[in-house]
Amino acid sequence: MNRPPAIELQDLRCGYRGRVVLDVPRLEISPGEFTAVIGPNGSGKTTLARVISGVIPPYSGVARVNGRDISRLSPRARARALAVVNQSVEALDMPLEDYVLMGRHPHRPPYRFFETAAEISLARENIRLTGLLPGNTPLDRLSGGERQMAAIARALTQQTGILLLDEPTAHLDIAHQVKILDLARRLNRERGVTIVLIIHDLNLASEYADRLVLLDRGALLVSGAPFEVLTPSLVESVYHTPVTVLPSPFSGRPFIFPAPGDSALHPPASTVPVSRWQRKP
Fold first, then answer.
1. What is Dmax (Cα atoms) for the chain?
2. For residue 161, which of 122, 194, 190, 137 has the smallest C-alpha distance?
3. pTM, whole model, 2 decimals?
4. How confident is the model at residue 277 (pLDDT cuts 50, 70, 90)?
5. Which residues make Cβ contacts (< 8 Å) with residue 203, sequence separation at least 6?
Protein backbone atom coordinates (compact mmCIF):
# COMPACT_ATOMS: atom_id res chain seq x y z
CA MET A 1 0.00 0.00 0.00
CA ASN A 2 1.41 3.36 -1.06
CA ARG A 3 1.87 5.99 1.62
CA PRO A 4 0.18 9.36 1.03
CA PRO A 5 2.38 12.43 0.58
CA ALA A 6 3.73 13.83 3.83
CA ILE A 7 2.43 17.22 2.68
CA GLU A 8 0.07 17.88 -0.20
CA LEU A 9 -1.28 21.23 -1.39
CA GLN A 10 -3.96 21.27 -4.06
CA ASP A 11 -5.62 24.30 -5.70
CA LEU A 12 -4.57 26.29 -2.66
CA ARG A 13 -5.43 29.98 -2.38
CA CYS A 14 -4.95 31.75 0.94
CA GLY A 15 -4.11 35.09 2.50
CA TYR A 16 -5.26 37.68 5.03
CA ARG A 17 -8.35 39.89 5.40
CA GLY A 18 -9.77 38.61 2.12
CA ARG A 19 -6.64 39.31 0.07
CA VAL A 20 -5.01 36.34 -1.66
CA VAL A 21 -1.24 36.33 -1.10
CA LEU A 22 -0.44 32.71 -2.01
CA ASP A 23 -1.69 30.63 -4.95
CA VAL A 24 -0.33 27.09 -5.28
CA PRO A 25 -2.06 24.82 -7.81
CA ARG A 26 -0.21 21.72 -6.60
CA LEU A 27 2.71 20.72 -4.40
CA GLU A 28 3.58 17.32 -2.98
CA ILE A 29 6.35 16.50 -0.52
CA SER A 30 7.00 12.79 -0.13
CA PRO A 31 7.77 11.10 3.19
CA GLY A 32 11.47 11.30 3.97
CA GLU A 33 12.21 14.29 1.70
CA PHE A 34 14.38 17.23 2.74
CA THR A 35 12.73 20.21 1.04
CA ALA A 36 13.64 23.89 1.37
CA VAL A 37 11.17 26.66 0.52
CA ILE A 38 12.94 29.77 -0.75
CA GLY A 39 11.98 33.12 -2.26
CA PRO A 40 12.31 36.88 -1.77
CA ASN A 41 10.67 38.79 1.07
CA GLY A 42 6.93 38.87 0.51
CA SER A 43 6.93 35.83 -1.75
CA GLY A 44 4.62 33.82 0.53
CA LYS A 45 7.04 31.59 2.48
CA THR A 46 5.64 32.45 5.92
CA THR A 47 2.07 32.13 4.67
CA LEU A 48 2.90 28.70 3.25
CA ALA A 49 4.30 27.62 6.62
CA ARG A 50 1.18 28.88 8.40
CA VAL A 51 -1.13 26.99 6.06
CA ILE A 52 0.85 23.75 6.32
CA SER A 53 0.86 23.98 10.12
CA GLY A 54 -2.86 24.81 10.27
CA VAL A 55 -2.44 28.29 11.73
CA ILE A 56 -4.55 29.84 8.95
CA PRO A 57 -7.15 28.05 6.80
CA PRO A 58 -7.08 28.39 3.01
CA TYR A 59 -9.72 30.41 1.18
CA SER A 60 -10.03 27.55 -1.28
CA GLY A 61 -8.30 24.28 -2.01
CA VAL A 62 -6.82 21.97 0.58
CA ALA A 63 -3.63 21.39 2.56
CA ARG A 64 -3.13 17.79 3.66
CA VAL A 65 -0.62 16.28 6.08
CA ASN A 66 -0.26 12.51 5.80
CA GLY A 67 -3.40 12.48 3.67
CA ARG A 68 -5.56 14.37 6.18
CA ASP A 69 -6.99 17.86 5.69
CA ILE A 70 -5.00 19.92 8.21
CA SER A 71 -7.79 22.50 8.63
CA ARG A 72 -10.19 19.78 9.82
CA LEU A 73 -7.88 18.49 12.53
CA SER A 74 -8.00 19.58 16.15
CA PRO A 75 -4.93 21.36 17.56
CA ARG A 76 -3.94 18.15 19.37
CA ALA A 77 -4.29 16.08 16.21
CA ARG A 78 -2.25 18.63 14.24
CA ALA A 79 0.50 18.52 16.86
CA ARG A 80 0.60 14.73 16.57
CA ALA A 81 0.99 14.99 12.79
CA LEU A 82 3.45 17.86 12.42
CA ALA A 83 6.06 19.51 14.64
CA VAL A 84 6.93 23.17 14.05
CA VAL A 85 10.06 25.09 15.06
CA ASN A 86 9.66 28.85 14.65
CA GLN A 87 12.45 31.34 13.97
CA SER A 88 12.53 32.63 17.54
CA VAL A 89 12.07 30.86 20.87
CA GLU A 90 10.94 32.78 23.93
CA ALA A 91 13.44 32.83 26.78
CA LEU A 92 11.17 31.22 29.36
CA ASP A 93 12.08 30.89 33.02
CA MET A 94 11.75 27.11 33.13
CA PRO A 95 14.15 24.15 33.10
CA LEU A 96 15.20 22.88 29.69
CA GLU A 97 13.88 19.38 30.39
CA ASP A 98 10.43 20.70 31.32
CA TYR A 99 10.35 22.71 28.10
CA VAL A 100 11.28 19.67 25.98
CA LEU A 101 8.67 17.55 27.76
CA MET A 102 6.00 19.97 26.50
CA GLY A 103 6.32 18.05 23.25
CA ARG A 104 4.43 15.17 24.87
CA HIS A 105 1.30 17.21 25.65
CA PRO A 106 -0.54 16.25 22.42
CA HIS A 107 -0.11 12.56 23.27
CA ARG A 108 -1.29 12.62 26.87
CA PRO A 109 -4.79 11.52 27.79
CA PRO A 110 -7.03 14.14 29.44
CA TYR A 111 -6.38 14.87 33.09
CA ARG A 112 -2.94 13.26 33.20
CA PHE A 113 -0.63 16.00 34.42
CA PHE A 114 2.56 14.04 35.05
CA GLU A 115 5.24 12.59 32.79
CA THR A 116 5.87 8.88 32.55
CA ALA A 117 9.35 7.38 32.85
CA ALA A 118 9.28 6.65 29.10
CA GLU A 119 8.48 10.30 28.30
CA ILE A 120 11.28 11.56 30.53
CA SER A 121 13.70 9.11 28.91
CA LEU A 122 12.64 10.29 25.43
CA ALA A 123 13.08 13.96 26.36
CA ARG A 124 16.54 13.33 27.80
CA GLU A 125 17.55 11.38 24.70
CA ASN A 126 16.58 14.33 22.49
CA ILE A 127 18.37 16.78 24.79
CA ARG A 128 21.52 14.70 24.41
CA LEU A 129 20.99 14.50 20.65
CA THR A 130 20.93 18.30 20.38
CA GLY A 131 23.97 18.66 22.65
CA LEU A 132 22.14 20.56 25.39
CA LEU A 133 23.22 19.43 28.82
CA PRO A 134 22.41 19.55 31.66
CA GLY A 135 18.63 19.34 31.43
CA ASN A 136 18.04 21.49 34.50
CA THR A 137 19.55 24.57 32.82
CA PRO A 138 16.94 27.37 32.70
CA LEU A 139 15.82 28.14 29.17
CA ASP A 140 16.43 31.86 29.66
CA ARG A 141 20.14 31.17 30.28
CA LEU A 142 20.62 29.60 26.85
CA SER A 143 21.83 31.50 23.82
CA GLY A 144 19.59 32.07 20.82
CA GLY A 145 21.16 29.15 18.97
CA GLU A 146 20.83 26.87 21.99
CA ARG A 147 17.15 27.80 22.37
CA GLN A 148 16.63 26.83 18.72
CA MET A 149 18.20 23.46 19.52
CA ALA A 150 15.87 23.19 22.53
CA ALA A 151 12.89 23.82 20.26
CA ILE A 152 14.09 21.06 17.94
CA ALA A 153 14.45 18.71 20.92
CA ARG A 154 10.88 19.53 21.95
CA ALA A 155 9.66 18.97 18.36
CA LEU A 156 11.40 15.58 18.24
CA THR A 157 9.73 14.66 21.52
CA GLN A 158 6.39 15.11 19.71
CA GLN A 159 7.40 12.11 17.53
CA THR A 160 5.55 13.30 14.44
CA GLY A 161 7.83 12.24 11.59
CA ILE A 162 7.43 15.67 9.91
CA LEU A 163 9.47 18.66 11.03
CA LEU A 164 8.67 22.16 9.75
CA LEU A 165 11.55 24.56 10.40
CA ASP A 166 10.48 28.17 9.83
CA GLU A 167 13.64 30.28 9.45
CA PRO A 168 15.49 28.39 12.20
CA THR A 169 18.84 30.03 11.35
CA ALA A 170 17.62 33.63 11.37
CA HIS A 171 19.78 35.94 13.51
CA LEU A 172 22.26 33.14 14.33
CA ASP A 173 26.00 33.00 13.70
CA ILE A 174 27.38 30.59 11.12
CA ALA A 175 28.44 28.03 13.75
CA HIS A 176 24.88 27.67 15.06
CA GLN A 177 23.45 27.75 11.52
CA VAL A 178 25.60 24.80 10.51
CA LYS A 179 24.93 22.93 13.76
CA ILE A 180 21.15 23.23 13.35
CA LEU A 181 21.12 22.24 9.68
CA ASP A 182 23.61 19.41 10.23
CA LEU A 183 21.19 18.03 12.82
CA ALA A 184 18.24 18.42 10.44
CA ARG A 185 20.10 16.49 7.73
CA ARG A 186 21.09 13.80 10.22
CA LEU A 187 17.48 13.38 11.33
CA ASN A 188 16.42 13.14 7.70
CA ARG A 189 19.02 10.59 6.69
CA GLU A 190 19.20 8.45 9.82
CA ARG A 191 15.61 8.60 11.09
CA GLY A 192 13.70 9.30 7.88
CA VAL A 193 12.19 12.51 9.27
CA THR A 194 10.53 14.62 6.59
CA ILE A 195 12.11 18.08 6.74
CA VAL A 196 10.44 21.22 5.38
CA LEU A 197 12.81 24.16 5.76
CA ILE A 198 11.67 27.76 5.23
CA ILE A 199 14.83 29.78 4.66
CA HIS A 200 16.15 32.98 3.08
CA ASP A 201 19.75 31.86 2.62
CA LEU A 202 19.98 30.33 -0.86
CA ASN A 203 23.41 28.82 -0.26
CA LEU A 204 22.34 27.01 2.90
CA ALA A 205 19.21 25.80 1.13
CA SER A 206 21.32 24.50 -1.75
CA GLU A 207 23.82 22.77 0.51
CA TYR A 208 21.35 20.93 2.74
CA ALA A 209 18.10 20.35 0.88
CA ASP A 210 17.61 17.77 -1.83
CA ARG A 211 14.72 19.73 -3.33
CA LEU A 212 14.01 23.44 -3.54
CA VAL A 213 10.61 25.09 -3.89
CA LEU A 214 10.95 28.65 -5.20
CA LEU A 215 8.13 31.11 -4.50
CA ASP A 216 7.82 34.50 -6.15
CA ARG A 217 5.06 37.05 -5.56
CA GLY A 218 2.74 34.48 -4.04
CA ALA A 219 3.15 31.85 -6.73
CA LEU A 220 5.07 28.59 -6.92
CA LEU A 221 7.56 29.38 -9.66
CA VAL A 222 9.59 26.18 -9.85
CA SER A 223 10.40 23.06 -7.84
CA GLY A 224 13.38 20.78 -8.33
CA ALA A 225 16.92 19.84 -7.40
CA PRO A 226 19.25 22.73 -6.43
CA PHE A 227 21.09 22.70 -9.77
CA GLU A 228 17.72 22.95 -11.57
CA VAL A 229 16.41 25.87 -9.50
CA LEU A 230 19.48 27.99 -8.71
CA THR A 231 20.46 28.96 -12.23
CA PRO A 232 21.90 32.44 -12.80
CA SER A 233 19.07 33.54 -15.06
CA LEU A 234 16.33 32.36 -12.69
CA VAL A 235 17.94 33.80 -9.56
CA GLU A 236 18.53 37.15 -11.28
CA SER A 237 14.96 37.32 -12.59
CA VAL A 238 13.44 36.61 -9.15
CA TYR A 239 15.82 38.58 -6.91
CA HIS A 240 16.60 41.38 -9.40
CA THR A 241 20.30 41.38 -8.73
CA PRO A 242 23.24 40.10 -10.82
CA VAL A 243 24.81 36.88 -9.57
CA THR A 244 27.41 34.31 -10.48
CA VAL A 245 26.70 30.67 -9.66
CA LEU A 246 29.59 28.27 -9.16
CA PRO A 247 29.90 24.76 -7.69
CA SER A 248 30.54 24.58 -3.97
CA PRO A 249 34.09 23.32 -3.29
CA PHE A 250 32.64 20.98 -0.64
CA SER A 251 29.66 19.37 -2.35
CA GLY A 252 29.56 20.57 -5.95
CA ARG A 253 26.13 22.05 -5.35
CA PRO A 254 25.28 25.56 -6.63
CA PHE A 255 26.82 28.40 -4.63
CA ILE A 256 25.64 31.94 -5.36
CA PHE A 257 27.85 35.02 -5.40
CA PRO A 258 25.86 38.29 -5.64
CA ALA A 259 27.55 41.22 -7.33
CA PRO A 260 27.83 44.42 -5.25
CA GLY A 261 25.23 46.96 -6.28
CA ASP A 262 27.82 49.69 -6.87
CA SER A 263 30.10 47.46 -8.93
CA ALA A 264 30.37 48.36 -12.58
CA LEU A 265 32.10 45.07 -13.31
CA HIS A 266 30.91 41.66 -12.18
CA PRO A 267 31.62 38.18 -13.48
CA PRO A 268 29.32 36.86 -16.23
CA ALA A 269 26.72 34.23 -15.46
CA SER A 270 28.28 30.85 -14.81
CA THR A 271 28.47 28.43 -17.71
CA VAL A 272 29.70 25.46 -15.66
CA PRO A 273 28.34 22.24 -17.25
CA VAL A 274 25.33 20.71 -15.54
CA SER A 275 27.29 17.52 -14.83
CA ARG A 276 29.45 19.44 -12.36
CA TRP A 277 26.40 20.29 -10.26
CA GLN A 278 25.62 16.71 -9.51
CA ARG A 279 25.81 15.75 -5.88
CA LYS A 280 29.00 13.94 -4.92
CA PRO A 281 28.50 10.38 -3.61
1. 68
2. 194
3. 0.89
4. very low
5. 248, 255, 256
